[in-house]
Amino acid sequence: MYRSRHKEDLDNRTLNFLSSIEIDDKILYYDILCTTVHVIMLYKIHVLEKHEVSRLVGELNNVLHHPDKLSREGCEDIHEALETHLIKKTGINVGGKIQTGRSRNDQIITDIRIKARDDIINVMIHLNRLTKQLIDKSEDNLDSIMPLYTHLQQAQIGNFAHYLLSYSETLIREIDKLFSLYERINQSPLGAGPIGGSLLPIDRNMTAKLLGFDNILSNSIDATSSRDFMIEFTSNMASIMITLSRISEDLIIWSSQEFGFIEISDKHASTSSAMPQKRNPDPLEITRSKTAIVIGNLTTIMTILKSLPSGYSRDLQDTKVPFWNSVELVVSSLDIMKDVIQYLVVKKDAMRTASTKSYAISLDIAEVLVTKYKVPFRTAHQLVGALVNLSVNNNDEIPFRSLSTGDIKDVLSKVKANIAPGELIKAIREIDSNKSIRIRNSEGSPNPKEQIRIIRKSKLQLQKYSNEVQKKNERIDLVKQKITNTIKEIVTT
Description:
Layout: H1 12-18, H2 21-24, H3 28-44, H4 50-65, H5 78-90, H6 92-95, H7 104-139, E1 145-150, E2 153-159, H8 160-185, E3 187-188, H9 204-210, E4 215-216, H10 220-225, H11 228-254, E5 262-263, H12 282-305, H13 320-343, E6 345-346, H14 348-356, H15 362-373, H16 377-393, H17 405-414, H18 421-429, H19 433-439, H20 448-492
Parallel strand pairs: 3-4
Antiparallel strand pairs: 1-2, 5-6
Helix pairs in contact: 3-4, 3-7, 4-5, 7-8, 7-13, 7-20, 8-11, 8-20, 11-12, 11-13, 12-13, 15-16, 15-18, 16-17, 17-18
């Protein structure tokens, strides 16, 4: 340790308690990148000589390609380990200059923001893949007629495509939110110092530009100690996981023998240790539990931040684990869900049978009475409800099929409606599960034509987002190349 101490060094127990060295390996690459750019800036403001830049950059590149050569022993964090290594390799007169005009406080948060920027891109790529898979699966299931549920009760007739597209639209919104978040994260704290800047003529705009940031965080207190972007990012991760958990819950229920609407591929189902007939949807169950962990991570971060005073506090160190863990869990969950959807077997016959036996056509009948026979909706609602009760009591295998003219007249005598029994029977008999979908053509309905429109729209949105992600990746690649070119220019001129 090359930092000054008042009297004694930290004892090992305290050092171990304070250390974040293990988790910090996740940002070693970003610390090397950040330090390299800081070295370039120090050269530009005449703090470092050309030969010093050459030695420092050479050693930084060596650590980048051989991270195992970096000793972590006795260091509180990866930043101290890297600085210690550079001093050992280049001497105190060279390596001892790299923290000039820089504090751990602005250094750490710069590394975290650069990594978060990459993490956002990574999450968006995986979100795009899952969303595309949902859309592709929906194209194959425009004819997969099924009951739609509210309160887990059959509500209306739809199709499996409509169901899948409901979640693709949710995930497209998540992609959109991450694009917005990217702009807020891509602001540079580097050069803010411990909390109040530096008297050295450091060039914050130079380092921000070299690192690919859009701008700098103008207030040095805010730059070093604010972690609101962590809350927002982790909140987005929790929102994504909640959607995945809901999909998991649906698929678990629908894969049960009681429903039998779908079958989870053997690739994604485990067997029981005791019961040979079982096919357990374990990845979906684990997705639900991972969701709870990510929500817990968000709570952890917010709880750490809620009572901190202005300025940097060491508590902030412990936000890194739940922050990075959330991203990792989201990426792995998106991956497994994409595979589950891809290999999912849709039992169209079972869905159709359930639809045929469903009273979910009831609203369609009521709306036919409204539109064709000018029956007030509340009257139509009462009338069809009475017919449902009668049909249920008759144990109809197919809803309303056993109703006679006498039954209809009896219901009409109790529910005053300006409609002839024959017309009511006709209205009932002309609606089935197939026609139910065809006659509903309002925007966003399960009508196949409407679903095809939504599929086309969603594909265009996804392609747009994919292109934008590619542009951001290309920009980051250009940033890295510019850093390399700048170093070559310094060393060779």
